[in-house]
Amino acid sequence: MFVFQLLYSGFTDLLVLNQQSWIQPWRFVSAIFLHGSFSHIIFNLFALILFGLILESIIGSKKFILVFFASGILANLIAVNFYDSSLGASGAIYGILGCLTILRPRMTVWVYNLPMPMFIAALIWIGLGIFGIFNPSTTGDIAHLSGIAAGFILGFLFRTRFRERREIRYRINLPEREMRNWEDKYM
To answer: At what angle do helices 61-79 and 90-103 cross, to 10 degrees?
Structure first.
C-alpha cells in the first residue's frame, strides 16, 4: 500500500480515514494500511514485528488477526471524531501492546534504552498519549489510546485461556546431619 501511495498521487485520498468514512466504511480498515512517511511505516513495522510475533506465539494467528483488526478499527472509529484525517497502523499496534500487557505484564521490554516490565512500558506509552492529547501534534494520540484500550479488553477476554504459566519451584529439604554424613563419606 505504501508503494502505491508513493507511485499514485490521490491513492491515499481514496482510502484515508476522514469524514467520508461514515459513508465509505472501508476506510475504517484501509486507513490502517496507509502511512504518512517512510519513518512512520518503519516504526510501525518494527513494533509489529517485535510485539506482534510475541503475541501471535501466545494466542495464535487467528486471535492475533482479531486483535489487530478489532483494535485498528475501534481506534479509527474513535479517531475519526477528533481528526480531520488519519492513517496508519498505530491503533492496531497499540492494541497488540495492550493485549500483550495483560497477558505478559512482567515480560521485560526495552523502552528508551531501559529494560522494564511490559506493564510499566504500557503506563509510559499511555502517559505519553495523554500528554500528547494536550499538546497537539501530527501524532494520533487518541487513536493510540483507543487501540491500547481495545487491546486491554481483548487481553482480559483471552487471559484465562492464555495465562502466563508460572514456574513451579520445588525445594528439597535435607537434614543437615545427612548432608554432613554424605560430605564426610564422598568428599
So the answer is: 130
Residue 155: CB atoms within 10 Å? 25
pTM given for the model: 0.82
Residues 123-169 have pLDDT tens digits of 999 999 999 888 877 788 999 999 999 999 999 999 877 666 555 56
Alpha carbon distance 61, 55 (integer Å)? 9
Measured in whole angstroms, the distance separating CA 138 from the mean position of its chain's CA atoms is 20
Q: How far apart are CA 145 and CA 126, in angstroms?
A: 7
Residue 96: alpha-carbon gap to chain centroid:
3
- For residues 155 and 99, what is the distance between their CA atoms, to the nearest angstrom? 4
**Is 150 in contact with 70 (CB distance < 8 Å)?**
yes
CB 24 within 8 A of CB 94: no
Kindly provide the b/e burial profile for residues 12-32, where b requires at least 16 CB atoms within 10 angstroms of the residue's own CB: beebbbbeebeeeeebbebbb
Domain ranges of the chain: 2-186
Alpha carbon distance 161, 156 (integer Å): 10
The highest-level CATH class for domain 2-186 is mainly alpha
Three cell numbers, residue 154: 481483548
Rounded to whole angstroms, the Cα distance separating 52 from 31 reads 19
Q: Tell me if residue 173 falls in helix, strand or coil.
A: coil
Q: Tell me if 154 sits within 8 A of 71, measured CB to CB.
A: yes
